[in-house]
Design goal:
- There is one protein chain.
- This protein is an alpha/beta fold.
- It has one domain: TIM Barrel (Alpha-Beta Barrel).
- The protein has eight helices and ten strands.
- The strands form two sheets. It has an eight-stranded mixed beta sheet with strand order 1-2-5-6-7-8-9-10. A two-stranded parallel sheet has the order 3-4.
- Helix 4 links the parallel strand 6 and strand 7.
- The model has no long low-confidence stretch (mean pLDDT 96).
- Bound molecules: iron/sulfur cluster (SF4).
Amino acid sequence: MKYIYGPVKSRRLGLSLGITLTPYKICSFNCVYCQLGRTTLQAHERKEYIPIQEIINELKLWFFNNAQQAKNLNYITLSGAGEPTLNIKIGEVIIEIKKITALPIAVITNASLLNMPSVRKELCNADLIVPSLDSVDLTSFIKIDRPKEEIKIEGIIDGLVNLRKEFKGKVWLEVMLVKGINDGLEQVRKLKEIIDKINPDKVQLNSPVRSTAEPQVQAVDKKRIEKIKEILGERCEII
Ligand code: SF4
């Protein structure tokens, strides 16, 4: 299989079958903590990076060959080897997946394109969106996510606020904490103000445990993560 991977077990999604909508590793960010390594093509342009008919054919084949295993799945997840919303056909992919399976569809995104109304509209048939927002402080946002220059933190925040207003499914906001970059308590208080505006169903705190794009990246210690959770309030959980 070229575009389908897993099933992968995770604490937040249970057992999910992954689909990548971009080749390795096309992304609008180049996060210091990325488990996939450094971004090879940093892109902002949306196009059909992988022909969606090939993805759908592969998915049909997977379900045909794995009928028994499919019964244990909790989600189909669009994520993979890059930023899935860069694929301009993501909306069509979601519609086509719904014709193959009744499983809920999760989209894991870095939120960089959510300020585009067309992107939010294309995601409207998903069941769960897991966007990330690591910092609202410009310096640390740039330091941790290393976005393509066209991408602005204000646009990401607007996109997230509008997504929550328009999207009928669940939104779980992920914050990846990196020691010394975005774990300052003042930064977290600013983040909390914005999170209250976005109003996601959940906020999930994470810190890198596996290999990262930059070797000097360090996880935040447990005690500090607990403190950050306390600041972010009751909808926040540590994953
Ligand atoms: S947004 Fe995701 S895929 Fe892109 S660099 Fe960051 S962690 Fe990696």
